[in-house]
Give the backbone structure.
Amino acid sequence: MNIDNTLSKSMEIFLRIFGIWPESSCIPLRRLFWTIAILMEQALEYQWVAVHFYSNEPFEVMKILSETMTYTIMFIKVIIFWVKKRTFVRILTMMAIDWENRTIDEVSKITTTYNANLSRRFNNGTVILYTVAVMFHVSNVFMNDSGDEKAFNTSTRPLVMNMDLPFDLDQTLVYELVIIIQLIHLMLCAYINGLLNILLINLILHVGGQIDILCKWLIDMFPTEGKLSKESKLSPLIVEKVIKKHQQIITFSAYIEELYTNIAMVLFVSDTLIICCLGYILVASLGTPDPMRIIMRTILFYVVSIMESFIYCFTGDYLTNKTNSIGDAAYNSYWYEAKYRESRFIVFLIMRSQKQLTITIGKIMDLSMERFSSIIKASASYISVLIAMY
């Protein structure tokens, strides 16, 4: 089964770079490279936090800590995708089959094509958003501001990512080389972090489209009210097609749940802390001599972090609501116009659709908009505690 055209090219390129795409070459070497690179980066950044925890201003430490935690979460996401490779391959294979079968009727073609184009727009928009966010975040490196340099006393020169490096940066060539390497590393990590989040939207849009197709089949499979002929019969092939489609939707949703439940568990805890740290930075910056510089560097990072939590909670809520539409479509069809022996499978389909499809947080609780509101409320509470402490 050809899975090359299942997702957008931008998504496929970055998944290949990080050794996640199943048909990539030298996958073990790619994974080894990123494991070493990210672990080195994490060790140097956490060392900076430990060394300067008490010597720097609290909001500066919060800033670096939130950045470091974001890299940690990104690496955990990548590791989970490495471990769940077989599940990801099954998801891509099912998407490829649905894409090839989209031509069997008009509703399948229109719905599948529309959702695929919408997913590509989300992917391209994510790349643009994260590019702008990174550029704002590293703006201090490209602006020779002596005041900003003094704020970070790890070196006389600012870095893209603050680290306790084991060598001197006094030489211009060494400094520029470090800046280039850090910038490339930051851009790639930001892209994969955002695209793994948007991948969830792609998968939910796909399963949502398949649910819409199933609902249309359910409505059209029974004759119009009052026009049923005594000799007409419901085709067993149509019934088989509907049942198989419903089972494929359930299986596909189960694969999404298996792939993202542990990621959601990590994010539910980490995003609360990250949003709290960034919110504290924005509030604390108001008392500094140049608040706009700090706000401009932090605001997009803050928006992206909130958006990450919103994406997971919204997709879980969307999938749950879509599940309800299957039972509604089955009930609202003219099943009562058909013979009992032909329409009784509708009862089992409605009963099965009452077990809602959802994405859970580590198999503990469902992702929903209520969970998103709880994250925001908890972050706001922690911000007020930090402000009272400092």
